[in-house]
Amino acid sequence: MEFRIQQINLLRLSGINSIIGIDLYRNRVRVVEVRTHGGILNKFAAKYAVSRHITVDFPDNTSAAKRGNLLFEALKKNGIKTRFSVSTVRSSNSRVVTADMPVEAADTISKEEIENWIRENYQKLIRVPIPLQDLAFDFQIISQTLDSIRIEVAFVRTSDRDGILELLHSAGLQVLLLTIGSRSAELGFLSTKVLPENGNLSFVFAGEDGITCTDYQRRNPIGEQSNILRRNTRTTSLGEVIASLTKDAGEADSIFVSGPAATEPVPPQASVWEPLGLPSEYSLAVGLAVQGFLYVSPITGHELLIDFLPEKAKYASLEQLDKSLFRVASITMGAIFFVLLGLQFGLQTYVKNESARLDGKLQDIGPVYSEVRQLKRQVDALKVQLSGEDVMRDRPSVARALHEIAASTPKGVWLYKLIYSYSDTTGTRVDIRGYSRTNEGAADYLSGLQASRFFYGVRVIRVGAPTQLELASFASAEQKSFVTFEVDLKIAP
Fold first, then answer.
1. Count of CB atoms situated within 10 Å of the CB of 56
2. Are 85 and 18 in contact, with CB atoms under 8 Å apart?
3. Burial class of residue 128 in the structure, from the number of CB atoms within 10 Å of its CB (0-12 exposed, 13-18 middle, 19+ buried)
4. Alpha-carbon span 66 to 61, nearest angstrom
5. DSSP result, 408-431
6. What burial class does residue 30 get, using C-beta atoms within 10 Å of its C-beta: 0-12 exposed, 13-18 middle, 19+ buried?
7. What is the DSSP letter of 252?
8. pLDDT tens digits, 164-197
9. pLDDT for 378-395, tens place per residue?
10. CA neighbor of 109 nearest in space, from 147, 153, 138, 136
11. Where in 9-69 does DSSP place strands (E)?
C-alpha cells in the first residue's frame, strides 16, 4: 500500500506550484515558500524561486497547539497562503542506523518482510531501552546483493512526531512529507546549484545540533560517474571539518558550506551556499520545499524515501491535493470555456457585420442590377429577332450595325426592340424601338443617330408617352415614368 500511495502522491504533486519548507528546531521555526515553474515533462528540469520567507521564535514552555497558532498568525501576517508543507525531524530527536538484512532471494523481498525484520531486531539497532510502541520508524534501501539488503533505518519517538504534526496542523498546514534530519538541505543544494563537472564535491551543513558532511565524486579518473562516497556527522568546529576535507581530498575539490551555524568565518577553501538568494540559515527549509516537489530520496534517487507521516495523515494530504487539483482544473477549464465563448461571440459579430455590409452594398447596386437584368432580357430578345434568314446571309453587316447602334446609345437610354431587314432595292434598314427616362435623353439619342456617319435616312416615327402594351411589358418598380420612341434608319454600306 505504501508504494502505491507514494506513486499517486508523485502524480498529484505535479499540479502544485508552491510548497512551504518548515525547518523546526526547538523554539524556532524557519519557513520558506518556494514556487516552481517549468519541468512539465521533466520535474528535475524545473526552476525554483522563493516567494516569501520568515523566522518565528516561540516562547519557552508553550504547547504544540499554541506554537501552531503563533505560526498561523505569522503566515497570515506575511501573506503566505500556501498550505502544503514539508517538514523534518531533526537528528537530536531521532536515530539513524545502517544494517545488512540477510535474505535468500533479494529480488523477492517485500516491504512487509523488511518491516517485520526491523521490529524483531530494533533493540540491536538503536541500543536504547525504549518500547517499540513508543517508536515510529521507516527505512530506505541503499543497496542489495544476492544474500543481503543494506537498509538505512530511521527511528523517532512517536511523541516527538505527533508534537510536530500537531503544531503544523494547528497552523492550518497540510503535511506532504515528514522526513528525517538535515539531509534535505543537500537535495536543495544539488537541485538549484550549478555544480562543477569534474573533481570531488563536498557539501557541509552546519546546523545547531551538529555538522553533517556529504562527499560526492563527480567523475572518477577513468571518466565514469559514481554516487555518494560517504556520509558523516561531525561535531567538531566548522574550520576543522573544512581543513580535514581539504587535507583528505586535495585543493582541487569544491567545498560548499551552508546552514544556521555557517555564519562564523569560513576558510578560503570553501564557499558559502546561499539557497535561492536567501541567507544560508534557510538552506534546510529550501531543501525541504524542493524535496516536496521532487518527492525523491537524496541518497538513492528512488521514489521511496524515509517518511514518518502516518497513514491517516497521508490520506488526508491526498484528499487536499485532489481538492486543490480539482479547483485548478475547474478554473482552467472555465477559463478555456469562456475564451471559446468569446471567440464564438467575436466570430458571430464579425459575420453579422460583414453580412450587413454586403446587404448594404446589394441595396446600393439594386437598381443597376435590375437595369442590367432588363438589358439581358432585351439582348436575348434581339438575338432571337436577329437570327432570321436575312441576318445569316449578311452576318458581318449585322454585327457592325449592332456595334454602331450600341456605341451611339447614351446612358439613360434603353433599347428593347430592333428589326433588321435587307432588300436589294432599299439596302439594310433597322427599325429601333426604345425608351428613356426623359424627353431630353430620347432627343439626344436621336440627334446622335442623325449625326453618325454610319447611319443615313434617319426617320423618327414616334417620341412620347408609352403605350399600354409598353407599360405592361417594361415598367418596373424602380422606374415609374419613361418616354418611348421609335426610329427607322439605314446603315451606310
1. 18
2. no
3. exposed
4. 10
5. H--TTEEEEEEEEEEETTTEEEEE
6. buried
7. T
8. 999 999 999 989 889 888 888 888 888 776 666 6
9. 777 776 666 554 444 455
10. 147
11. 18-25, 28-37, 47-57
